[in-house]
Amino acid sequence: MCGIVGYAGEKSSAPILIKGLKALEYRGYDSAGLATVEQDNIEIVKSVGKVAVLEEETLKHNLKGITGIAHTRWATHGKPTTLNSHPHSDCTGDIVVVHNGIIENYKTLKEDLLSRNHKFISDTDTEVIAHLLEEKLNNVNDNLEDNFLKAVVEVTSILEGSYALGVLWKKVPNTIIGTRVKSPLVCGVGENENFLGSDISAFIEFTNKAIYLNDEDFIVIKKDEIKIYDKLLHEKYFNVIELDINAENSGKNGYEHYMLKEINEQPFTVRSTIEEVLKDINHAFGITKEELKNIKNIMMIGCGTAYHATMVAKYWIEEFCNIPCQAEYASEYKYRQVAMPDETLAIFVSQSGETADTVAALEKARAAGFKTVSICNVFASTLARMSDYTFYTKCGSEISVASTKAFTAQLAALFSLAVLIADAVGNISSDKKDELLNELAKLPVAIEAAVAQDKNITKLAEKYYKQSTFVFLGRNVNYPIALEGALKLKEITYLQAEGFPAGEIKHGPIALLNAEMPVISIMPGDKLFDKMVNACEEVMARGAKSIAITDEKGFKLLEGRVEEAVILPNVEEYLFPFLSVIALQIFAYRIAKLNNREIDQPRNLAKSVTVE
Ligand code: F6R
């Protein structure tokens, strides 16, 4: 949540900061702001709304500063107003701070500061940091840089919660100090210019060299010098990583929205992810077959869409491996008393690798001594760096807030991991292993056919986009897809959408149904097809509209017993989620478009949820 950018160089910083903010806008887009420092003048520009509004506002100010910090906000404390946007300053206006995270003890700190006559202008938790720094730096006139660093170290030592900070002080005009605890922060290393960012997209257009900061690192950034200290002010050695990425897929490539582009990329992203695994499945996840051999219990953890991927994988793991397996929301796992059996493998799934709940759950699993494997899309993200092993999905950047291609790539990785574990524990023969992996390898062709259903699905959306409630049903591996279909629809259309296991509707949810309500059932022609038909009959008996997401086999068996059908190719039944989810992604996209929604940046959301 919230994106931070910093620039120290020789060029005018404002346009570079704006570019960085645009790249980070997926982290929050309630409001934005920037501060630049030129000799002894700090100028701040802020605005409510998207970064484009800030850009226009900034042009009016002709900012010249060659050092600056900037922020795009997803509101936690205080409404999205200009006053609440970052950067925040102290009473003198000499110190400015941008912050991602939550300062949990800010109320007490603010009361203390108010009692010492500090004047606050915002409702944010962040503003206390600027005032606390003011108290440390107020009368400092020598050893300016050392004292600046010392002040940041001392102030952060009393903060509770999570933070990534960028700080400017007028008296040290060409220097940015950054630090982090439980919120991501990366430094970009350039030629006569250096950067700070919540992630590498903030500066990847300018440099592919990065330093990933650890919790309680303090970084001092100038145009030609970078130093990192620990909290005892000892200078630390650091690694500069050369990233094997560029800004290639940052555009929309002619698509109207990133979401549509990303839906259409899935034949390639799933293929690349499968190829990455199949190069050498025994070593693809880092963890060895020897380590997997004695696993007795599997925990899988994620949030939102990533959680739904773990739910699908639970069915695969229990079927192929015969090992008890749970899928759990990270936010629940963290705060409950969980059983911690020996020989547990904990698998974490996250597109961003920065989701605070998932990171917190990983900490708990590590503390329990579990082996941890993460499946992430973002290189060197916090989760990836904290896990024993990481597999990177091959999606390229996912920009649309609603996750699509990351989900199917996560499924590809999890399916392969399930097969690897099944092999390691000796629950499948090597022929069965080959058979399962061969079926997986054939998937991208079927995925192409699923993506090509856009026209048919658009017709369906045209019929139903004015409805206010949608119900999604599925069983077995397709039950999590019902949840994912509903999540996608509600996220980007703001319409009510509920997913249920089809067998459960008669136990309560059927009361929701009324005439005309679309009920979308995921029902390939598999062993549960007849059970799904029963659910459709129950739905139609209440006058609701029954829509089937089926395969060719299922369509033949349907014999017109539903109102509408989307027909996808036949694949092995355990692989149908790869196809059905794509149909539902397209359905959500088309309904959102017909309702004129902000598809790539839906209200109230942010792509990377770095607060608990
Ligand atoms: C839904 C969506 C969210 C994320 C969730 C976890 O479209 O994008 O539900 O899936 O916030 O994010 P990651 O995967 O980055 O941990």
What does this protein structure show overall?
There is one protein chain. The protein is an alpha/beta fold and 612 residues long. It is 38% helix and 23% strand. It has 20 helices and 25 strands. The strands form 4 sheets. An 8-stranded antiparallel sheet has the order 3-2-4-1-10-9-11-15, covered by helices on one side. A 7-stranded antiparallel sheet has the order 5-6-7-8-12-13-14. β2 (31-38) and β3 form a beta hairpin. The longest helix has 22 residues, at 430-451. Fructose -6-phosphate binds at residues 303-306, 350-352, 355, 358, 402-403, 487, 491, 608-609.
List the helices and strands and how they pair.
Blueprint: E1 3-8, H1 13-24, E2 31-38, E3 41-48, H2 51-59, E4 67-73, E5 88-89, E6 95-103, H3 106-115, H4 127-137, H5 144-156, E7 161-169, E8 176-181, E9 186-189, E10 194-197, E11 209-212, E12 218-222, E13 225-229, E14 235-236, E15 241-242, H6 258-264, H7 266-278, H8 281-284, H9 289-292, E16 297-302, H10 304-321, E17 325-329, H11 330-334, E18 344-350, H12 356-367, E19 371-376, H13 382-386, E20 389-392, H14 405-424, H15 430-451, H16 454-464, E21 469-474, H17 479-493, E22 496-501, E23 518-522, H18 529-541, E24 545-551, H19 552-558, E25 564-568, H20 576-594
Parallel strand pairs: 16-17, 16-18, 18-19, 19-20, 21-22, 21-23, 23-24, 24-25
Antiparallel strand pairs: 1-4, 1-10, 2-3, 2-4, 5-6, 6-7, 7-8, 8-12, 9-10, 9-11, 11-15, 12-13, 13-14
Helix pairs in contact: 1-2, 4-5, 7-14, 7-15, 10-14, 10-17, 14-15, 15-20, 16-20, 17-20
